[in-house]
Design goal:
The two termini are 20 Å apart. The protein is 47% helix and 14% strand. The strands form two sheets. The chain has a three-stranded mixed β-sheet with strand order 4-3-5, with no helix packed on it. By secondary structure, the chain is an alpha+beta fold. The protein has seven helices and five strands; from the N terminus they run αααααββββαβα. Bound molecules: zinc ion (3 copies). The site of one zinc ion (ZN) has 7 residues, from loops.
């Protein structure tokens, strides 16, 4: 087991990286993509996306509802669910099926596969394009004459930041 995480991954940690930068980049990309595609990035859609990008942790819909209420007065659940549907359709967020929760997409400006690494300790989800993994799976499925409909792979485990703390405790 060579679990020597590279610096790039450590830099991704919410404790060491500039997360405002992540969030601003995501919102900026969303603005650009929506205007290119001629779809409206309404205030509620923006707010939901901003809330999801508050961290790299997967967020459940009801947590979003809780957080929106104090500011927007009466955010109806349906409004928030519609905003989530929109963000999913536009590829700006992903659903982590195993957690029934959402994360902001880190690669929304390009076509990519989804390899979602979920830490059971800190609940952060790291998205990786995982091209090689997906290629291998595509080959396997071809042999099985199986047509894939949804291409997200979710892996649960302990992230590189949590592993050292677990070992020392
Ligand atoms: Zn970040
Ligand atoms: Zn993505
Ligand atoms: Zn972790």
């Amino acid at each position: 087991m060579t679990q020597q995480s590279e610096m790039t991954e450590l830099e991704h940690s919410s404790t060491t990286h500039d997360h405002n930068g992540c969030r601003e980049k995501a919102i900026h990309t969303a603005e650009q993509l929506c205007s290119q595609r001629g779809v409206r990035f309404t205030p509620i859609r923006r707010e939901v996306l901003e809330l999801i990008w508050e961290s790299h942790r997967a967020v459940k819909a009801y947590d979003l509802l809780d957080r929106i209420k104090p500011k927007a007065g009466t955010a109806k659940p349906a409004t928030v669910y519609r905003a989530l549907d929109f963000l999913l359709e536009q590829g700006l967020i992903h659903k982590v099926e195993s957690l029934n929760a959402f994360i902001g997409c880190s690669f929304s400006d390009r076509r990519h596969e989804q390899l979602l690494l979920t830490c059971v300790q800190c609940h952060e989800v790291e998205e990786r394009p995982g091209e090689r993994v997906m290629e291998a799976i595509a080959k396997e499925l071809e042999q099985a004459a199986f047509t894939m409909q949804r291409k997200a792979i979710e892996i649960h485990g302990i992230c590189g930041r949590c592993a050292p703390t677990l070992m020392s405790s």
